[in-house]
Amino acid sequence: MRVAVVCASQYGATRGIAERIGAELALAGLDARVYDAASPPHAEDVAGFDAFVVGSAVYMGHWLKDASTFVRRHQPTLLEHQIWLFSSGPLGTETTDADGADIRESTVPAEITEFTNTVRPVGHRVFFGAIDPEALSLPHRMIRKFPGAAEKIPAGDFRDWTEIEAWAREIARSLVKAG
């Protein structure tokens, strides 16, 4: 079974998640290939996949344009296959905010409601991301200099690899069972 793992990553953290998902799918015996959403497989090649995992980094409550464009452009094909979506973005170690709300639930990107209706994903997950201030572009470095921003945008790698791998194994089990 062929699975395309397509991602949009600004600084590489989301790409790392996609690669880990692809590796777990491959360990389960699936033919998993990881693509950058900016240069995905051609339309005729997309139709040759049996399932999809599509993810994006999240900025200002939205997926990156390349990932959203991929889903919209290939919507008819994606609708005919199993698809899982993931988002990468919250930073830090706290899973709830000051009001006790689940950070993952409150950071679901705006596009997910649309995609739930248009491609009907099997599931969507929000994973914590990573940020290296030294790797940021000048505008993003400047944003972190605003008062209080460094606390709201903490530096570090907050990806939970155990959680990511477990989710990928769930996907693999679902696909192997269906196949």
Give an account of the 3D structure:
With 179 residues, the protein is α/β, with parallel strands linked by helices. It has one domain: Rossmann fold, CATH 3.40.50.360. The chain is built from 9 helices and 8 strands. The chain has helices spanning 13-27, 43-46, 65-73, 75-79, 103-106, 111-118, 138-143, 149-152, 161-178; strands at 2-8, 31-36, 51-59, 62-63, 82-88, 123-127, 130-131, 156-157. The strands form 2 sheets. Strands 1, 2, 3, 4, 5 and 6 form a 6-stranded mixed beta sheet that branches. β3 and β4 (62-63) form a beta hairpin. The longest helix has 18 residues, at 161-178. It is globular and about 50 Å long. The termini are close together.
How far the N terminus sits from the C terminus, by CA atoms, comes to 7 Å
Strand content: 15-25%
Q: What is the β-strand count?
A: 8
User: What's the story with the biggest beta sheet?
Assistant: 6 strands, mixed
In the CATH hierarchy, the architecture is 3-Layer(aba) Sandwich
Per CATH, the superfamily is Flavodoxin domain
**Structural class computed from helices and strand pairing:** alpha/beta
Please, how many domains?
1
Q: Helical content, roughly?
A: 40-55%
Mean pLDDT: 90
Counted by DSSP, the helix tally is 9
Low-confidence stretches: none
CATH topology: Rossmann fold
